[in-house]
Design a protein that fits this description.
By secondary structure, the chain is of the alpha+beta class. The protein contains five helices and seven strands.
Amino acid sequence: CSSDLNHKIEQVYSDNAPEIIKAVHDLSIPHGKSTPGRPKTNGIIERQNMRVQQAIRTFLYQAGLPPAWWSIALNYLQVALNLDNLFVEAPTTPWERKFGSQFQGKVIPFGACVRFKPSPILEKRDKLTTETAQGLFLGWRLRPGRAWNKEYMVVSLEWLCQQASRDAGLARPGKRPPIHIVREVEYNPKIGRAHV
């Protein structure tokens, strides 16, 4: 299945979910279906799901973040998989094939410690503190169509530490962290990761 609007979808393969059956029928797309009760016919997608889950668990563990942050780690993974040929041998990355050039931003590991200029709306800072703050890198902000906005997503390390010391507020599902959308981040691979 291709998200590129210039390519025709040749076939969709799925389980027998009624919503998928209806959608492919409405769009007149050929539909291959798995056989109920035969796990082998779902093997490829189940293995991919396992890889995604393992990657997300690893990202969260390395960043010191609880499972409630899985959706943020998944967003990072979606972009990262297109910036590199992690599972396939190919002369170009998925990003290059879609946009015709290499990704122009910084490729930084999820949860890496970065310096950034905080948004004054999200974080009130003392006039005597430095203009930059430390934070954890959460990924890249994309426009509709998945083109890069030239913006990065970061959460303040100060905010994370405050939440962790209060009442384990990081682990509460549904509690969305204040994510700073910034144009510049400084990343030093020698610093590594900051555990909360």
